[in-house]
TrEMBL record:
Residue spans, zinc finger unnamed: 3-34
Family that this chain belongs to: Belongs to the NrdR family.
Ranges for domain ATP-cone: 46-136
Cofactor(s) of this protein: Zn(2+)
InterPro entries linked: ATP-cone_dom (IPR005144), NrdR-like_N (IPR055173), RNR_NrdR-like (IPR003796)
Keywords noted in UniProt: ATP-binding, DNA-binding, Metal-binding, Nucleotide-binding, Repressor, Transcription, Transcription regulation, Zinc, Zinc-finger
Role, per record: Negatively regulates transcription of bacterial ribonucleotide reductase nrd genes and operons by binding to NrdR-boxes.
Organism: Curtobacterium salicis
Protein name, per record: Transcriptional repressor NrdR
Source species, domain of life: Bacteria
Keyword field contains Phosphoprotein: no
Note on how the cofactor is bound: Binds 1 zinc ion.
Length: 163
């Protein structure tokens, strides 16, 4: 870290604090050459590799705008979308990679979106899982039904018959 005042190539960290949202670290530094203090902010960079090979910085806003289309007409608020985008970023960053494929981000969206709104999930999944036919939709809906049945903890048949 070069001193911004005298360009000395070294500095000493005097104090470190994480930001309120926990995504960056603010460091107070002092130059051993001129003695002046300055602050730096450090963040872990995350780049998205687009289909055409171009790199661009990760953006929660792009996640929100993409998912918003799937949520049109659904009871999903802007704050719901912000929370979803934050969860997706946490999932992606937990991999530890500094670069991630755009398609992998699309797939990482599926689970949090499914929890948020199943209709929006089906709309979004039809693109990212490349649904080709009605059978693909039927399979996805069938899996949602199975998951609902197992989540309810009921082992009884749906018609109420049984012991």
């Amino acid at each position: 870290m070069f001193c911004p005042f005298c360009r000395h190539p070294d500095s000493r960290v005097v104090d470190s604090r994480t930001s309120d949202d926990g995504t960056s670290i603010r460091r107070r530094r002092q130059c051993p050459n001129c003695g002046r203090r300055f602050s730096t902010t450090e963040t872990a960079s995350l780049n998205v590799v687009k289909r055409n090979g171009v790199l661009e910085p990760f953006s929660r806003e792009k996640i929100i705008s993409g998912v918003r289309k799937a949520c049109q007409g659904r009871p999903v608020t802007d704050s719901d979308l912000a929370v979803l985008a934050q969860r997706v970023e946490e999932i992606v960053r937990s991999s530890g990679a500094s670069q991630i494929e755009a398609n992998d981000i699309g797939l990482a969206i599926l689970s949090p979106l499914r929890e948020l709104d199943e209709v929006a999930y089906l709309r979004y999944a039809s693109v990212y899982q490349a649904f080709d036919s009605l059978e693909d939709f039927e399979d996805a809906i069938g899996q949602l039904r199975i998951d609902h049945h197992s989540a309810s903890g009921s082992d009884r048949p749906a018609d109420g018959a049984g012991a």
